[in-house]
Structures are given as C-alpha cells and as structure tokens.
C-alpha cells in the first residue's frame, strides 16, 4: 500500500500534523505500514507540492509551532479515484515461509524451537491487535457504515492471526506424528 493514500484517507477524516499521522500509524491495526517516519513527511511535502493537501502553520504559546495538513478537493478526488480502482492482489510476504522452506537442515529440536518461536510471535501480534482494539478504534466513525467497515478490517486482521496460529500448530502436530520431531 502506498503511504500516500493512507495519508489522504486520514486527512479526509480531519486535519493532522505529521506527528499525529505518525502516531495513528503506530497505533492502528487497520493502517499497518512498515516505513519510516521520514517517508510520512516526504509524502506530505509531495502531496502539498502537487496540490493534494494544504498546510497551515499554527503558533502556540506554550508548545512548539505545528503544521496542520488538510486535504484539498484535488486530494479528495485522487483518493476517490484510488478507492474505486481495481484492488491490488493480496500481498503475502512472510519471511517465516522462507525460513521454513530451508528448515529441513535443522535437527528436530531446532525445528521445534523455530516453530515455537513463530507461534509465540503470532500469539503476541494477536494480543497486541486485541489490546489496540480494546483501547478503542482509531476509525473516523463518521457513519454507521464506516464503523462497520473498520470493524470488518479489524476482524480480518484477527482472523489472519488465528489462521496462522492454527496452521503453525498443525505443522508441529504433523511433524511430531510423522517424524517424532
């Protein structure tokens, strides 16, 4: 996913500073993005340069000056064009699958350890997702339909973790049954 469209989407909700956008990305399960903070600011500058967002410097008495970004009509049109475009196919990049592809070189104990560590990582990610949801959704919640859609996004992510847990546990069981690993 391009960070550009996530930023435009957030700005369609309300104005944000770059720092506030960074916090939304860090705390959101629906807007996962693995880039660095410099990309947020670089993208904001590009969006401002092409007229998709505007910015306003706000001076504050007891806090540092902040720059608020707002989506423009051009930005809204660009966001809508992207939303109605053909969705990209599911991107499934999982480094663990590459590790598993070459795991036959491990002895039974090492393979069990690898699978146990992966299972623990998935359980941790699921707990983090559940905790973020418990603390409250970061969805704009402008309409009941929007709330529903964001709830379904969260459900999809939780289901992914559950399926991954089921899968790794099944591998461990089958390895043990077939090779007494």
Mean pLDDT: 89
The first-to-last residue Cα distance is 39 Å
Percent of sequence in beta strands: 5-15%
Total beta strand runs: 2
How would you describe what is shown here?
This protein has 181 residues and is mainly alpha-helical. It has helices spanning 3-13, 18-27, 37-49, 73-83, 95-101, 108-135, 144-179, and strands at 53-58, 66-71. The protein has two domains: 3-83, Arc Repressor Mutant, subunit A, CATH 1.10.10.10; 95-179. The chain is built from seven helices and two strands. Helix 6 runs antiparallel to helix 7. The mean pLDDT is 89.
Based on the model shown, name its key terms:
elongated; single chain; mainly alpha; two-stranded antiparallel ribbon; Arc Repressor Mutant, subunit A; 181 residues
Brief summary of the model shown:
The chain has 181 residues and is mostly helical. It has helices spanning 3-13, 18-27, 37-49, 73-83, 95-101, 108-135, 144-179; strands at residues 53-58, 66-71. It has 2 domains: 3-83, Winged helix-like DNA-binding domain superfamily/Winged helix DNA-binding domain (Arc Repressor Mutant, subunit A, Orthogonal Bundle), CATH 1.10.10.10; 95-179.
């Amino acid at each position: 996913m391009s960070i550009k469209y996530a930023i435009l989407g957030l700005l369609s909700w309300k104005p944000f500073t770059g720092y506030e956008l960074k916090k939304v990305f860090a705390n959101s399960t629906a807007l996962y993005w693995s880039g660095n903070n410099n990309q947020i600011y670089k993208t904001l500058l590009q969006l401002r340069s092409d007229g998709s967002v505007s910015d306003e410097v706000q001076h504050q008495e007891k806090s540092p000056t902040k720059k608020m970004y707002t989506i423009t009509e051009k930005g809204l049109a660009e966001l809508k064009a992207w939303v109605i475009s053909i969705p990209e196919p599911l991107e499934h990049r999982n480094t663990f699958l590459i590790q598993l592809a070459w795991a036959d070189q491990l002895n039974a104990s090492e393979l069990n350890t690898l699978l146990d560590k992966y299972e623990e990582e998935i359980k941790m990610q699921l707990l983090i997702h559940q905790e973020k949801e418990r603390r409250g959704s970061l969805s704009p919640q402008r309409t009941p339909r929007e709330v529903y859609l964001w709830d379904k996004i969260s459900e999809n992510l939780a289901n992914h973790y559950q399926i991954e847990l089921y899968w790794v546990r099944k591998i461990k069981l089958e390895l043990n049954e077939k090779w007494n690993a």
